[in-house]
Amino acid sequence: MSVEHLDWDKLRVFSVVAELRSLTSAAKRLGESTPTVSRKIDDLERKLNCELLVRTHRGVELTEAGRLVEAHVLAITDKANSIWNDVCALDIEGTGRIRMAASDGIASHWLTRSIPDFLETNRGIELELNITDDEVNLLSGDADMTISFDEPRHRDLLSIRLGVLHYMFFASPDYLERHGEPSSLFDLQGHTCLLHSAYENQIDEWTSRAYDLKKALTYSVTTNSGTVLREVCAEGGGIALMPSYVADIDSRLVPLALQEIAPIRFWLVYTQRLQRLSRGRIVIDWVRKQFSQDNYPWFMETFVHPSKRGVDEKASQKKQKTG
After folding, report:
1. What are the tens digits of pLDDT across the range 5-31?
2. pTM of the model
3. Which of these, 246, 282, 1, lies nearest to 125 by C-alpha position?
4. Can you tell me the distance from the alpha carbon of 98 to that of 100, in angstroms, rounded to the nearest whole number?
5. SS3 of 194, please?
6. In degrees to the nearest 10, what's the CA dihedral of 311, 316, 321, 323?
7. Could you tell me the maximum CA-CA distance found in the chain, to the nearest angstrom?
8. Which of 25, 61, 198, 296 is the most exposed place for a label (fewest CB within 10 A)?
9. What does the pLDDT look like over 115-144, one tens digit per residue?
């Protein structure tokens, strides 16, 4: 049997099991379920036509064949690390491509504002931005980094908590003039409402207030595009549920004087490989700055209504002038 028929993923799983002498501990480190790890070991044993592990009540013990495979896998890993270290040394400072994957909204609306300045400052870096609502697997090479609403647990992934998204309602002045402004969440039942389909899928995991609203309201337009949602809302098509930062990027929209619906935490997730690259560190630092809570209170833990921010900024400017 040639080496081409060996599955490196199963060999990697076996090496972790061999190191920890436990299927359960290996599964926890790998971020997989214990049955999945056990199945991969069984598949590898069938492929090699020999028994590699002996399962006991204390964990697992390696057979003679298992010890031989472990030695070979460690040797391969050492060689791969040597290749990695040699290639990393050739990383040209601040150049190369970075592939980022993120859901519609944060990347397509918020980050895009600062991309031109970033590229002007970092002319050697190429950004590939993929907007997707699908789950992104960084370890399989789907992207170099992603913005995620779930904190990663895998040991090979690194993360930085960027902040919190606060969802609230917006409408256009024209819509409010024609239909009036709702004074409470209960009043929304008599209005035309708009919704992003990604929010519809998330609402069940949001607060009980959001879940109750989902059942009570009728949405005239549901779309998977944040741009469509904003444009329909800005043209007077109805009241839309969007993150509070929309007040900072679209002056055509009026943030309603209603309580927020849901606070959603989000993280920047990337691989250890990306952190070792100079271009990776540059992009990571840039993304972090775009969610600085000192400059952008939209992403603070505590909800700041857009109208309140305007009052605070004017008070701060007045204090600076009189000071």
Report:
1. 678 889 989 999 999 999 998 998 888
2. 0.66
3. 282
4. 6
5. strand
6. 140
7. 83
8. 61
9. 999 999 999 999 999 998 878 888 878 899
